[in-house]
Amino acid sequence: MASRIPYRESRRKLVIAFDVGTTFSGVSYSVLDPGQIPEIKGVTRFPAQEHVTGSSKIPTIIYYDPRGSVRAVGAEAIKDGVLELATDNGWVKAEWFKLHLRPRTRSTEHIAAEIPPLPSGKTVVQVFADYLRYLFQCTSSYIRDTHANGHTLWASVENHIDYVLSHPNGWEGPQQNQMREAAVLAGLIPSTPEGHARISFVTEGEASLHFSINNGFSSTTMNNGDGVLIVDAGGGTIDISAYARRGSSFAEIAAPQCYFHGSIFVTIEARKLLSGLLSDSPFIDDLDHIIRCFDKTTKHRFRDVEETQFIKFGSIRDNDEEFNIRYGQLKLTGRDVASCFEPSVKCVVDTVIEQHRVARQRFSHVILVGGFAASDYLHNRLRAMLEPSGFLVIRPENHVSKAVADGAISFYLDHFVRTRVAKVTYGAFANALYNPHNPEHREREADTFVSMAGEKRVQGSFTVILPKNTQVSETQEFRSSFTQLYKLKTDFASLTSTVWCYRGVIAEPRWRDTDTRMYSKVCTIELDLSHFSRNTKEIKRHGAQGKFYRLDYDIVLLFGLTELKAQLAWMEKGVEKKSPAKIVYDPDSTRED
User: Would you give the distance in Å from CA 352 to the centre of its chain?
Assistant: First the structure.
């Protein structure tokens, strides 16, 4: 790949990437000096973790007191004595809170019961904001304390900071909007268009590709046109993305996937297993502690199904031989522990094979990154299951847990991916002109009406703007035409148009009453039309019901960036105009009805 070029702007700037993970989080940054080639650096020292050499991640945990004030965050939340303090003072722990941002679809609701509830009185945006604020404070302190003339450096950039927020492949506009709200609440940016523009979003899969490129993968193993699959195995999700090299850039070659099978789900499976094994043992009351011990030690050390495994949770006085507990250790077979990993392993293997089937280009390299990738058992099991089918599973040697944070900075600096694939079919509902010869229209006779213009129309027609699995460049526009009628001139002040998506299996969805539950709202586009009131000659019409006003417009989607952009376009005196339309997301807009 081409080497990074010097920073071209005239003013020094700082870019910070926050990788807020389900279980662990990290920060990377780059100081952009005019004329200098930017470098990617990581925050490797955090409070309560100062003496851990090279540690680049902290737990994604916050403790709140009964008044809702933050009491301990990150590594501070797991240091000795905090659990006792929390118990004595009524502190409440927020963990795995990132998963409360998930899209509310049927494919994600099965995990709702597994996620710890948010502290009473706190929204996910508030908790996310508190955590972002803490990461920012840690980053500020780290830069001031570790760089030469650090305080001077920080003073020169603190008002010129851009941010990159990474998120799972399955997060969409509503989740990005909530993360942006959290950044505003945390005081990172002002709630203005200029402030919002300082936030960029990148999927964890795409960030991991950038990390892999910067760690020498493409230059040593890929020729132009070769494909690669990125498996980012994290704490909560496994994000799978396929790309192909196109000269000095990359193109997405299949719709990215996101599954809730990260490392916490190994722990959840272990809880189910041990709940059954210990149900009649007095040690069932220690289950939470036993699970914590499994999570910290046994899960990470596990390598071989043939080896007996132990969870050390107590003292030599803790014994119950009937339940394989001796000297404070619970004995398990290797196959018992392997069964806890199996849903995650099967998810990755099945998805790799499916992505290979549907991708626009073949690939043989599978790159495994993320915190869960550090599991030798996961790595070895995937190799054993995939390599006989011709796949080469690669796990970068260095800092796989830093992949997303470092890759997010590379995304900002290097921008390797220029083409992406639509995960769903985007479109809008309209009232189609009734055609008596069309059997689909005749079937919906009960849904017809006569418009202001005197035309018979049928409701619920879905107009596709961007079909699923379409490969889209960053500058490519997708549009469809629509019409809005107004009875009164005073009504002609604004236009609201809703963008929908279809998530089902019908290749060409056409009607809302077919596979209804697979349609969900993406966003609402709002446009101020007040300037039209001064010149309505071109849009005034007369119909069977008298005078009315008509606006013909196009919905324009720009999908090729990591954040969906939408515009409205219309003709005015023969010249096309495009709107600075406002996009409004409903927090539940990804919920399937």
Answer: 19
The Cα–Cα gap between 528 and 525 comes to 10
CA distance 259 to 350: 12
328 exposed, middle or buried (CB, 10 Å; 0-12, 13-18, 19+)? middle
Mean pLDDT of 60-89: 95
Residue 367: CATH number of its domain: 3.30.420.40
| Domain range for 229 | 225-261+349-418
Q: In this structure, are 241 and 167 located in the same domain?
A: no
Q: Which of 340, 367, 391 is the last residue of a domain?
A: 340
Which tens digit of pLDDT belongs to each residue from 107-124?
667 788 889 999 999 999
| Buried-state track 351-389, b at ≥16 Cβ within 10 A, e below 16 | bbeebbeebebebbbbbbbbbbbbbebbbebbbebbeee
State how far the alpha carbon of 80 is from the alpha carbons of 76, 134, 328, in Å: 9, 20, 21
Closest of 105, 116, 121, 140 to residue 60, by C-alpha: 116
Domain count, the chain: 4
Query: For 264-289, how does the pLDDT look when each residue is reduced to its tens digit (9 = 90+)?
Result: 999 999 999 999 999 999 999 999 99
Q: Write down the pLDDT at residue 55.
A: 61
Q: What is the mean pLDDT of residues 389-400?
A: 83
Structure tokens given for 189: 């940016």
